[in-house]
Amino acid sequence: MKNWLHTIQQNKRLQALIVGLYIVVTFFSLYLAQKSVVAFLLLLSSLLLLYFTTFSNRVKWLIGGLVMVVLLPLAASQGEAYQSYMEVATLVGIYIAMALGLNIVVGMAGLLDLGFVAFFALGAYTYGIFATGQANNFMPFGHYPLSGESFWVFIFIGCFVAALFGILLGVPVLRVKGDYLAIVTLGFGEIIRIIFNNLDKPVNITNGAMGLASVQPPRLFGIDFMYPSQFYYIVLVILIAVIFAVRRLEFSKIGRAWKAVRENEIAAQAMGIHLVKTKLMAFAVGASFSGMMGVVFAAKQTFVDPTSFTLLESITILVMVILGGMGSVPGVILGAALVTILNLQVLTELTNWLNQLSLNGVISVPDALSPAKMQRFIFGIILILFALYRPQGLLPAKNPVFNEKELKDTDKLVNAGVQKEATQHVHLDS
Amino acid sequence: MSILTVKNLTKQFGGLVANSNIDMEVQKGSITAVIGPNGAGKTTFFNMVTGVYQPTSGEILLNNESIVGLKPHQVTKKGIARTFQNIRLFGAITVLENVMVGMHNHLHGGLFGTILNLPRVRKEEKEARREAYRLLEYVGLESFFNEEARNLPYGAQRKLEIARALATKPKVLLLDEPAAGMNPKETSELTKLIYNMREELDLTIILIEHDMKLVMEISEHIVVLDHGEKIAEGTPDEIRNNEKVIEAYLGKGAATTAS
Amino acid sequence: MINEVLHTLPQVLIDGLTLGAVYAIVALGYTMVYGILELINFAHGEIFMTGAFVGTAILLTFAGFGWLASMPAIVALILVLVVTSVVTGLLGMGIERVAYRPLRNAPKLITLITAIGVSFLLQDIVRFIAELKNGNYILTGPSLFSGQIGIKASSISSIFNDASVKSSFFIVLIVAVIMMVTLDFFVNRTKWGMAMRAVAQDRETAALMSVNVNKVIALTFFIGSALGGATGVLFAIQYGTIDPYIGFILGLKAFTAAVLGGIGNIRGAMFGGILLGVLEMFAAANLPVVSHGILGAEYKDVFAFAILIIVLIFKPEGLFGKVSVEKV
User: What is the pTM of this model?
Assistant: First the structure.
């Protein structure tokens, strides 16, 4: 088995053949068997297969892009289930972006945030309030709802508002030491939900528990975005931007500072790292991803209310990060996809199947055991088992591998050795 | 010229006096050793100089400028770097990245520059990688550059702490028991390294060390602490023959018996 | 406005004391575990909840057999308390053994994550069992002490309104006080209590002094969980209706109480619990009055969290804790 894998790893042509064949086969199975959720999931997993190949990053991105932009929507578009497939894919994208945000906070900077969904809520309400008549209640100027064209600006506003609140919440919260942070963020998550739930008086800002209904759909060149198949592309674009941003931050000065703080706060400070500033940046960047996706979520659901932003949601996102691998970008993407699909597809399908069996009298499964209700049980088990036996997750975080040739000076100053340091310093300082 | 001046430095933890009225002058370009029995308050002294603890009273001047009240990262910016007695590396990241963390304040890639991957940031990162590699070469760890720091052998971890501290471009380097746990061969390499750093990098070095051979060999000035107080200071020869010092290490009466 | 606040004060104090007693005992579980392992045992709130369900289940079974009518309420109560505390005590020990002990030297983050996992798992297991047996996971137990007693506070001063008290209030208070006094005695006066304090101070040194550290930690979990479970029973008796999700927020507030009193400090936790209970009831009764209806009673949870955050920021050692210095 090992030998066999090794051979494949050596041979790029063979890999191309396998991946290509896999994509073609799963594409046509979904194309022809529209009702097969399995085919849909198999086509999605081609991305995982692609991840394990040894192609260059550029090639991987190109093939992945082709699958996501063209093949998946095309294959799914042939039947009635089209919109529900795209709905799943869209939600997967939204959760991946959020999980990547939480991954910065928990995985890279090592700060356990149990109220992360609050930022998602902020994004959703930011758009929800201004894209419904709600804003008329308290805004002294302007006519609301704003048109769907404002949606594109609101993606950035949502990003900014969430980041701002990340900083505002972070300033007091981050003064709290280590494990207290978990409980304080949990408290903040609840506070924000309670406030949204009650902010219908004295001035009706959030419409309280009733929520905000008929949020304006995004509009571009006169076309309204109403269907999941359209939102899919919005989410895809944002998601790709988020992945690029995270990847670049991860191996930069900022990412190293996050990891240093996670590994050893005292040593990090001794290296000149400003502890609070570094943690705040992790909070803000992580929150901003959630804020953007909150805006998209509000527009997609056309309805916002506080029940979408409970503690269970925060823990769900945490499960995605732990399952995939703390600090690992590919891992977290996988974890988020698995958990979302489990939540939306597998559990409901299983429940339907079991109900069918009960109806036919094959076996009788009590309603209490219906898989759709077992989320907490499943998440609890995942958290415990992974913490105990595989804390690094499914796809553990990898360190960058540097190229020795690039590190050694090619210019002839090598022998000058340390003497050269001095000049180099000046150069960098200036 | 004195680069670091300490006046009347005192630290109390509740009723416990960890450091009491310590005075010290460290000459620019010198190697100074702080020695004393276990629990004499040496590390507490380092912690105050680097801003980890705030002194109860007293003054610390770097180039005649007070650094009391600064946070540890600010002290580092002022030009004081340190290593730790109980090694504190960033275990899960690579050796090269550990050194690059040390360059934190000398890199200017901001949030947006990094996300947009501007050429300026890319160039800076590339230079930083090269410089980190050179520092690893300097302490003799270049072969480990892609390893996770926690997988290094013990002696190499101590050297990596030094390389990482050098990356902050300090004027004053504080080494807290750099030779602890090293074998004689490693210790003699380290001795050479400390000596070279001072000669080649324009550094002032203060070290806490229990290995007296190393201390006597390289330090020009020795300060002896006992029970939080400075009991003696001087050249290695003076300290070797100081009765109070012998007494502190070996107990009362040892000085007379020895002589 | 002051008058309005004063009118309700007697009722607020009584309700606050009841709730505070519950917080106080649950807080003990957090504080003991934190003192010894430096771990926030998120699952402790769920142990409390499990206790409430176990106790209610026993009472319902008794009622089903018709025994409840034939035995004095106080006997039933003692029986239920004893059985429940043994069950939850063992549950707590089991959780420690399976989920926390293997991670004792792992990073703190990992242990916290397991704790959350355990907490979720317990919620769902209890929900599942309750729903399976009962058809619904919201349970209402038989009322043991349902008499109402009026307190004529207006006779003390005309500014107070009269207050009414369920007779279970006294039961809750008395049992709570007995538990706290016993625990205090145990920790401060017995050999095992001394071993517990020793392990909390310095695990390694205690081990060198031939203290069996694992045993002491297991014992700590047993006692903390037994107390938590028993409090669950009291809660069910006092408030009647329970569901599998009562433990999380209540646990969070009990943790706030523990922090308020200085984490690791047993007497502090008791005081913190009572204080938080009274403050919360006070807030629930008076926030709408003081803010002229802008802030509803729902904000009482916000109020409790705000206390937690303020304490952690400005006085992390709590009202009675000692400042600790991190060794570098």
Answer: 0.88
- Domain containing C121 equals 2-259
Secondary structure class of A220 (helix, strand, coil): strand
Asked whether residue C78 is assigned to any structural domain, the reply reads: yes
**Across the interface, do C328 and B13 touch by the CB < 8 Å criterion?**
no
State how far the Cα of A411 lies from the Cα of A414, in Å rounded to an integer: 7
**Which residues in chain C are closer than 8 Å to A373, comparing Cβ atoms?**
127
DSSP B41: S
Show contacts of B190-194: CB within 8 Å, 24+ apart.
Answer: B190/B158, B190/B159, B190/B214, B191/B217, B191/B218, B193/B139, B193/B140, B193/B159, B193/B162, B194/B31, B194/B218
Task: Please count the residue pairs, one from chain A and one from chain B, whose beta carbons lie less than 8 angstroms apart.
Answer: 150
Q: Tens of pLDDT along chain A (430 residues)?
A: 667 777 777 777 888 888 888 888 888 777 777 777 777 788 888 888 878 877 788 888 888 888 888 787 777 777 777 788 888 889 999 999 999 999 999 999 988 888 899 999 999 999 888 887 777 777 777 777 777 778 888 999 999 999 999 998 888 777 777 778 888 888 888 888 888 888 877 777 788 778 888 777 888 887 778 788 788 888 999 999 999 999 999 999 999 999 999 999 999 999 999 999 999 999 999 999 999 999 999 988 888 888 888 888 898 999 999 999 998 999 999 999 999 988 887 888 888 888 888 778 777 777 767 777 788 888 899 999 998 998 888 888 888 888 887 887 655 444 444 443 333 333 333 3
Question: Which of residues A24, A45, A80 is at a domain's end?
Answer: A80
Kindly state the tokens that stand for C194: 């001394």
CB contact under 8 A, C328 and B47: yes
Burial of A416 (0-12, 13-18, 19+ CB in 10 A): exposed
A52 within some domain: yes
Q: What is the pLDDT of residues B44-103, one digit of tens each?
A: 999 999 999 999 999 999 998 999 989 999 999 999 999 999 899 999 999 999 999 999
Task: Mark whether A175 and A209 lie in a shared domain.
Answer: yes
How many domains does chain C contain in total?
1
Task: Determine if residue B155 is left, alpha or beta; phi over 0 gives left, psi from -120 to 50 gives alpha, anything else beta.
Answer: alpha
d(CA A174, CA A176) in angstroms, rounded, equals 5
A219 lies in the same domain as A261: yes
Query: Do residues A130 and A295 lie in contact, with contact meaning Cβ atoms separated by under 8 Å?
Result: no
User: Which chain B residues are closer than 8 Å to C325 by Cβ?
Assistant: 13, 53
A162 and A216 assigned to the same domain: yes
Cβ-contact C44, C224 below 8 angstroms? yes
Q: Which domain holds residue A25?
A: 1-80
Q: Which residues of C touch B13 (CB under 8 A)?
A: 325
CA distance B135 to chain C (A): 26
- The interface predicted TM-score (ipTM) is 0.91
Say whether both A67 and A106 belong to one domain. Answer: no
Inside any domain, residue C9: yes
Structural domain includes residue C81: yes
Does the residue C292 lie in any domain?
A: no
Looking at chain B, which subunits does it touch, using at least 3 CB pairs closer than 8 Å as the criterion?
A, C
**A93 and A65 in one domain?**
no
List the single residue in B with minimal CA-CA distance to A416: B134
CB contact (8 A) between residue A382 and residue C117: yes
User: Do residues A16 and A136 share a domain?
Assistant: no
Which residue in the set C131, C298, C309 is minimally distant from A187, CB to CB? C309
Domain-embedded: residue A406 = no
B17 and chain C: CB distance < 8 Å anywhere?
Answer: no
Interface test with A, best of C44, C97, C287, C312 (most A CBs within 10 A): C312
Other CB atoms within a 10 A radius of the CB of residue A373 amount to 17
Total domain count, chain A = 2
Do residue A196 and residue A254 come from a single domain? yes
- In a domain, residue A344? The reply is no
pLDDT tens string A30-76:
777 777 777 778 888 888 887 887 778 888 888 888 888 878 777 77
Q: Helix or strand or coil: residue B186?
A: helix
Of A33, A62, A80, the last residue of a domain is: A80
Q: Is B56 on the interface with C (CB under 8 A)?
A: no
Task: Please judge whether A388 and C121 are an interchain contact, meaning their C-beta atoms are less than 8 angstroms apart.
Answer: no
Both A290 and A312 in one domain: the answer is yes
